[in-house]
Design goal:
The protein has ten helices and ten strands. It is an alpha/beta fold. Bound molecules: pyridoxal-5'-phosphate. Residues 47-49, 77-78, 151, 153, 185-192, 283, 286-287, 314-316 line the site of pyridoxal-5'-phosphate (PLP).
Length: 329
């Protein structure tokens, strides 16, 4: 595999810490639980999109872009980190956000405003359906526009998680640890595709288990097919001779509840337990749901007390403030 010619713009602080959560593990009666702290990537309160943006913004700069567009939900962590990356490089940034402008901005949206980006409200179109018109408009105005894909989940975004897996491998082997499962929130597929490929390239025995966050009812192709295809395209990008099939994908749909961003008892308990045993903040949309899923799989015996689990913390805590009225803690 050869990808060191692919441009990469440094945006975060790496490696992120790998820590053991002994008090959370004890509260659950086992298993051993480690956490990869990608909530600490350093860019504008951190998160997994920082890794993806290093490759995606690297590509934008190589193509001479002066204007960045991306899309997401009003509380998108991806949009917040993109806005910060653009600001740090003097690029103009446009965000196409689902919903309507709220009376007062909070959480990630407040941070988007602080980073000085242009916000376009798109109603029900939270996945960038309105981007083509905006590209045309900005191009006609003389801008050199680069569109960052939804959630940063292109081959370049997934490649960042092959690199992240390599980073984890170095930390893991130093402490002579082996993980039976790597559990994380999955929603646009880049994190999962990259970790799957990394796991394969490093001959790791871990099960890469994404917890599906989003029902994906507006997607054109089912999320599992999308993620598999992305893993295969990423393998191709770096010349790795791997073909994944449906049997290689572990995407758990059991915890989508009432859909994207709808906080229930599962998320509330996971956020409270992790905060109160470890002093670590999860978020209401992604990591709260993924940790809730992990806790449930431990309680129902799908993950055994003798297993050794890595929970990949993908960030998101800035959204807690915007969800203050939905949290019951
Ligand atoms: C975007 C995001 C995810 C999901 O990562 P994907 O690569 O889009 O699947 C998980 N957690 C947080 C906090 C995120 O912002």
């Amino acid at each position: 595999m050869e990808y060191h010619h692919i441009p990469r713009e440094p945006l975060g602080f790496f490696p992120t810490p790998l820590i053991e959560l002994t008090r959370l593990s004890h509260a659950l009666g086992g298993p051993t639980i480690f956490m990869k702290r990608d909530d600490q990537t350093g860019l504008a309160l951190g998160g997994n999109k920082t890794r993806k943006l290093e490759f995606i913004i690297g590509d934008a700069l190589a193509k001479g872009a002066d204007t960045i567009i991306t899309a997401g939900a009003a509380q998108s962590n991806h949009c917040r980190q993109t806005a910060a990356a653009a600001a740090s490089l003097g690029l103009e940034c446009h965000l196409v956000l689902g919903g309507q402008a709220p009376a007062a901005a909070n959480g990630n949206l407040l941070l988007d405003q602080i980073f000085g980006c242009h916000i376009h409200w798109a109603g029900a179109h939270r996945k960038g359906e309105d981007i083509p018109q905006l590209v045309e408009q900005l191009t006609n105005a003389g801008k050199n526009v680069y569109v960052v894909p939804y959630g940063g989940s292109s081959e370049l975004g997934a490649l960042a998680f092959v690199e992240a897996f390599k980073e984890l491998e170095a930390q893991r082997s130093e402490i002579h640890e082996t993980f039976t499962h790597i559990v994380f929130a999955s929603s646009s597929g880049g994190t999962q595709a990259g970790l799957m490929l990394g796991n394969r390239l490093f001959d790791s025995p871990s099960q890469i288990m994404g917890i599906n966050i989003d029902k994906g009812e507006t997607d054109q192709i089912p999320f599992d097919e999308y993620t598999l295809a992305l893993a295969n395209r990423t393998a191709e990008l770096i010349g790795a001779d791997h073909q994944f099939t449906a049997a290689d994908l572990c995407l758990n749909d059991d915890y989508v509840g009432d859909g994207y961003g709808v906080v229930g008892a599962l998320e509330n308990e996971a956020i409270a337990l992790t905060a109160q045993t470890e002093g670590i903040l999860l978020d209401p949309v992604y990591t709260g749901r993924a940790m809730g899923g992990l806790i449930d799989m431990i309680r129902t015996g799908k993950i055994k007390h003798t297993d050794r689990v890595l929970f990949w913390h993908t960030g998101g805590a800035p959204a807690l403030f915007a969800y203050a009225n939905d949290l019951r803690i």
